[in-house]
Amino acid sequence: MDDWLWMSASDLGRGIGAGRIDPVELTEAYLAAAAAHQHGRRIYVRMTETRARAEAEGARRRAKDGVRRGLLDGVPVSWKDLFDTAGVVTEAGTLLLEGRTPDADAEVLAAATRAGTVCLGKTHMSELAFSGLGLNPAYGHNTDPAPGTPPNVHDPALAPGGSSSGAAASVAFGLAPAGIGSDTGGSVRVPAAWNDLVGLKTTHGRLSLKGVVPLAESFDTVGPLCRTVEDCAELLAVMEGGKPADLRGATLEGARFLLLQPYATDVRDAPGTAFASAVERLGNAGARVEAGTVSCIAEAMDLSPVLFATEGYGTWRDVIEAAPHKMYPRILERFRGGRDFSAPDYVAGWRRLRELRAVWAGETAAYDAVLLPTVANLPPNVARLMSDPDYYVTENLLTLRNTRVGNLMGLCGLTLPTGVPSCGLMMLAAPGSEERLLRLGAAAEAALS
C-alpha cells in the first residue's frame, strides 16, 4: 500500500479499474499517512474522514458492479481551503473567516464528486490567497511558529510557494495523489514548481468559481497540482464534467515556441540554468524555439497594482477593517495597497489591459506557446521572510513576476518539473486552448524526463 502513495492519480484509477486497488483501502492509506506524517497538520487544515470514507465505499460498489464513472472514480484528492465544502469549515487561511461553514460544495468540488473522486481534506494556503510565498504565520491550529505554512518538499525551512501551498505539499509528501488549488497571479504554478510537480492554470472562466472564496474574481482561476500532465487533463475534465484531452501521440516535432525576453533570462542562476537545459531538451525533441519579446508586456505588468490589489481590497475591505489585527501584517499591507487607486484608475486600467491583450494575441499568434522559467527565484528561507520585511516584499514580487504574465494576458498555463529541484518550465498558451497545451505538455514531459 505504501507504493500507492506515490502513484499518479491516473495510475491509481487504472489500478481500481483492473481490480488491483480497492478504493476504501486506498482512502484509508492516505488518511493514515496524513495522520501519521510529521508535517500533516501543517499541510492539511482538516481532514474530511467521514465524507472520504463514504465516497470511497460508493466507489468500491461501482467498481465491483462494473459501473465506474470514469478513470478517477475512487481516487482521493485534496482541496485548498477556499473551496466550499458542505457542512465543513472553510476559512481561506484567515482568522477573519473563523468558523465559516458553507451549506453547499463549490461547483467544481460537486462536479468532481459526481465523477467519483474522494475528498480527502482541506489544505493550508496563504491568507486569502494573496501571496506567492505560501507563508502564513497568522493562521493555524497548533503551536508551530508559522502554523499555516506547509513545508517545502526539499527543505522544511524553505517556503513552499503559494497561495496553494498545502495543495502542493499534500502531493509532494505523498499525502494525496492530486490537489486542487486556485491561481490568481501564480498560485497553482509557483507551489507546483517549487515542489517539482505539474500544475495547470486554466483560462479565466473555464471552471466555475461558484463556491470559491475570492481574491480578485476578474483573475481567479481553478487548477490542479499533480504528478503528471495526464493527471491534470483528467482533473480538468472531472471538474467541468467534460472529456479529458487526448494525449496519445503527443509530439514536439514542428512545435514553435517563443522564449519571452527579458523574463526568460532575467532570473537567478539556478532557475536560469535549469530553464536553459530544459529548452535545449525541447529543441532536441523537435521543437523550434525563438527568443523575442512582446511589445505590450511591460505596460501590462505595470498595471498589476491597480488591478489586483484594488479588486482584492474592494472585495474584502469591510471584513479586513473590522478586525485588521487578525491578519499577518505583510498580507494586510498588500490588501491596503488597493486603497491608493480610484475607481476611474481601476476602470481605465482594465480598458487598457483589454487593448494590450489584443496586442499580445496578435504578436504571439504564430507560436504554439510562450516559454518562461516558472519562477525566477528559488524558495526563500521562512525565518528570514518573517524577520525581514524588505526581503519578504522583494521575494514575493519576484516569485510572482513570471507567472503573472499569464494572468494579465488571460492565458492558460502549464508548469513542468525540469529535473532540477524547485525549478520549473512554464508554457503559456492562448485562452481556451488547454487541450492543445496539455498535448504539448505531455510531449515536453517526455522530453524532460
Automatic annotation (TrEMBL):
Give the source's domain of life in one word: Bacteria
Annotated region described as Disordered, given as residue ranges? 141-161
- Gene3D superfamilies in UniProt: Amidase signature (AS) domain
Family annotation (InterPro entries): Amidase, Amidase_CS, Amidase_dom, AS_sf
Q: Which residues form a coiled coil?
A: none
Q: Do you know which SUPFAM superfamilies this protein is assigned to? A: Amidase signature (AS) enzymes
Name of the protein: Amidase
Instruction: List the source organism.
Output: Roseicyclus persicicus
